[in-house]
């Protein structure tokens, strides 16, 4: 009984019991459905073992959308708890768990897979490649992310969720104050997912540097590819810091080391420094690919090439450098001295300059353009004023003296949501709508999509702008309740109404997918938006080999020039195409990592050691494996091209 007790929830509630039942019923329904429709073989051969970057991108996309709703449910519960003074919907412990899991899910398990989805779907097509540089490593990256996400998400039904905040500061995250296994889940789930992210960074950088089509120099790459490249360079430098910090935090909790303790030579502020040396560049890992998406969309629907291509690239490079020089602004109030605060205050303000350059680039692209107000364009235009407000409030927070007033208040919560939601979530939804027809063969309904945009935009303003006011009036963040005498009740109710509108907006996304799947035309061609970059030069659906012939690049808008100026993208005779084989090893390794992580969470040392051995066995077998892929013959390629509508043009 003592053994089973360690898996129990320390603070159960009716909502958690309902979640347990829901998880069990959904799992049974999935297994029953796959068995009834005899889809186990299809699932294994087409998805679980795939190394095709497009299918991996779709799996990232589905995972990100699921996590969006998972994190959104936490957000709604928090806003409902704070909607009225002294509410009893959640107790203090449950609220701590919810705001911790909300932050981790939204940043690590929603936003990251969203950007990886677009990198996988778009980058190889934009540079004219058949696949990524290391297809099997790409599959392993996804399954490690998935294993980490699933490990984190079972915490609230097995053992208890983490409750030390998404930053998990020590000593609060140590064994003395976080006595359940929740923080173990935090350390190990993010570690497993982070290893996959680091692999993706290496893979994407290699792909972009070594696999571009002939003639595509670095300064002829599409802007999204540039943004993906710089984001992945940041990943390569930032994620090892997180990896080391998580190892140290895990050993503190499981083996009694003293890296982050307040005694025995430990240094709790060391965790804060490590975390934000990763954490602030992480913001730009998310935002730079979003900037790339906005650049592609604004250029397409303005009917103009992107204004200031070189300045856009230069500003992204400068942002990537400055992103590593601002981490201390996250703890201005923690007593590091006036000189240190002043230095980081200056660097924080400086990073606003290249970001401002981009805003002007987009505005000048729109200027005198023939603007088409499609759903992706609405998100892109709406992003500019909303994100600018988020940036200006960031400059306010950059003033270290003023930060003493703002830091632990709802003003800061409003600021970072004001940057992340228009800057990342809007970009992901714009990109989702923009690229949906390329990868699913039909367009999402514009009318429903515009309704979603307005629901999300109005809901966002109502949800977060009141927080600026209550924050300036002194409402503390991370507090689960407040008294009626504070006067915060009315504005918090407005915030709840805004959050509810956003929730309705996200539900309409699901309705849009269902409605469009049932009613949208499949006869949309390969370029329904009259786009400008190379990913639209191939067929819809995209064949496994992407391009029958490798494109020949002459400009930064090769596809547009081919359409409008008669440039030949595809020349020469057809040749057979070499492609990588599917493999079940990445999926198997992902599941072993899941078992390993779960075993470490509960200090189950025998399965932990066995699973570690299994991981190294998989790696060893791969080292000796001779897998040279397969070839698609000229005849097969020609038949596929004929079936899909003729050679790519």
Structural account:
It is globular and about 75 Å long. The model has no long low-confidence stretch (mean pLDDT 93). It has 649 residues and is mainly α. α13 packs parallel to α16, α15 packs antiparallel against α16 and α19 (585-601) packs antiparallel against α20. It has a two-stranded antiparallel sheet. It has 2 domains: 10-44; 48-583 and 627-645, Cytochrome C Oxidase, Chain A, CATH 1.20.210.10. It has helices at 2-5, 14-36, 40-48, 53-82, 92-126, 135-153, 182-210, 223-255, 268-302, 309-322, 338-350, 352-366, 375-398, 400-406, 410-440, 446-472, 489-519, 558-565, 585-601, 605-624, 634-644, and strands at 577-579, 630-632. 67% of the residues lie in helices and 1% in strands. It has 21 helices and 2 strands.
H and E string: HHHHHHHHHHHHHHHHHHEHHEH
Main beta sheet: 2 strands, antiparallel
> Radius of gyration, Cα only, in angstroms?
25 Å
Q: Could you say which structural class the secondary elements and strand pairing correspond to? A: mainly alpha
CATH superfamily of the largest domain: Cytochrome c oxidase-like, subunit I domain
Number of helices: 21
- How far the N terminus sits from the C terminus, by CA atoms, comes to 68 Å
Helix % is 55-70%
CATH domain fold name of the largest domain: Cytochrome C Oxidase, Chain A
Oligomer: single chain
**Domains counted in the coordinates: how many?**
2
Coarse shape: globular
> Any idea what the CATH architecture of the largest domain is?
Up-down Bundle
What topology emerges from the helices and strands here?
Elements: H1 2-5, H2 14-36, H3 40-48, H4 53-82, H5 92-126, H6 135-153, H7 182-210, H8 223-255, H9 268-302, H10 309-322, H11 338-350, H12 352-366, H13 375-398, H14 400-406, H15 410-440, H16 446-472, H17 489-519, H18 558-565, E1 577-579, H19 585-601, H20 605-624, E2 630-632, H21 634-644
Antiparallel strand pairs: 1-2
């Amino acid at each position: 009984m003592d053994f089973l007790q360690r898996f129990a929830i320390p603070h159960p509630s009716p909502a958690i019991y309902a979640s347990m039942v829901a998880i069990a019923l959904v799992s049974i329904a999935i297994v029953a459905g796959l068995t009834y429709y005899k889809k186990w073989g299809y699932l294994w051969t087409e998805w679980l073992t795939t190394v095709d970057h497009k299918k991996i991108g779709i799996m990232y996309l589905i995972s990100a959308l699921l996590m969006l709703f998972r994190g959104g449910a936490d957000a709604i519960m928090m806003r409902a708890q704070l909607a009225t003074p002294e509410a009893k919907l959640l107790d203090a412990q449950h609220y701590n768990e919810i705001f911790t899991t909300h932050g981790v899910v939204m940043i690590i398990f929603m936003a990251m897979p969203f950007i990886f989805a677009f990198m996988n779907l778009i980058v190889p097509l934009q540079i004219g490649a058949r696949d990524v540089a290391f297809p099997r490593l790409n599959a392993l990256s996804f399954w490690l992310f998935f294993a980490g996400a699933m490990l984190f998400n079972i915490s609230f039904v097995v053992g208890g969720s983490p409750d030390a905040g998404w930053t998990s500061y020590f000593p609060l995250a140590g064994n003395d104050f976080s006595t359940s296994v929740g923080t173990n889940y935090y350390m190990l789930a993010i570690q497993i997912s982070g290893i996959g992210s680091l692999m993706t960074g290496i893979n994407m950088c290699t792909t972009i540097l070594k696999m571009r089509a002939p003639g595509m120099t670095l300064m002829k790459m599409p802007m999204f590819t540039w943004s993906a490249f710089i984001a992945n360079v940041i990943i390569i430098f930032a994620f090892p810091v997180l990896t080391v910090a998580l190892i140290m935090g895990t050993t503190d909790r499981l083996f009694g080391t003293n890296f982050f303790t307040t005694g025995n030579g430990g240094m709790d502020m060391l965790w804060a420094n490590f975390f934000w040396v990763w954490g602030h560049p992480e913001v730009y890992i998310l935002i730079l690919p979003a900037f790339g998406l906005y650049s592609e969309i604004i250029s397409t629907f303005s009917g103009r090439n992107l204004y200031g291509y070189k300045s856009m690239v230069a500003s992204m490079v400068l942002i990537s450098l400055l992103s590593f020089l601002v981490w201390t602004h996250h703890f201005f109030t923690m007593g590091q001295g006036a000189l240190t605060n002043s230095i980081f205050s200056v660097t924080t303000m400086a990073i606003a300059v290249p970001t401002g350059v981009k805003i002007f680039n987009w505005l000048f692209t729109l200027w005198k353009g023939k603007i088409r107000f499609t759903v992706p364009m609405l998100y892109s235009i709406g992003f500019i004023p909303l994100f600018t407000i988020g940036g200006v409030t960031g400059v306010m927070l950059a003033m270290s003296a003023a930060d003493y007033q703002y830091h632990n208040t709802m003003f800061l919560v409003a600021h970072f949501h004001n940057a992340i939601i228009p800057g990342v979530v809007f970009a992901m939804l714009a990109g989702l709508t923009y690229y949906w027809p390329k990868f699913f063969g039909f367009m999402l309904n514009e009318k429903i999509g515009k309704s979603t945009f307005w629901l999300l935009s109005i809901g966002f303003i109502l949800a977060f702008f009141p927080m600026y006011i209550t924050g300036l009036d002194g409402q503390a963040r991370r507090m689960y309740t407040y008294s009626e005498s504070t006067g915060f009740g009315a504005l918090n109710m407005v915030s709840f109404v805004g959050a509810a509108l956003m929730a309705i907006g996200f539900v309409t996304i699901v309705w849009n997918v269902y409605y469009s799947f049932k009613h949208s035309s499949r006869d949309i061609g390969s370029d329904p938006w009259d786009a400008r970059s190379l990913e639209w030069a191939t067929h819809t659906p995209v064949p496994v080999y992407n391009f029958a012939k490798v494109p020949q690049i002459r400009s930064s808008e090769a596809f547009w020039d081919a359409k409008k100026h008669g440039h030949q993208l595809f020349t020469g005779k057809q040749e057979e195409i070499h492609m990588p084989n599917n493999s079940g090893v990445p999926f198997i390794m992902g599941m072993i990592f899941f078992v390993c992580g779960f075993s470490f969470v509960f200090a189950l040392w025998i399965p932990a050691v066995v699973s570690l051995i299994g991981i190294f066995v998989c790696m060893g077998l791969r080292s000796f494996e001779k897998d040279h892929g397969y070839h698609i013959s000229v005849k097969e390629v020609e038949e596929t091209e004929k079936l899909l509508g003729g050679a790519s043009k």
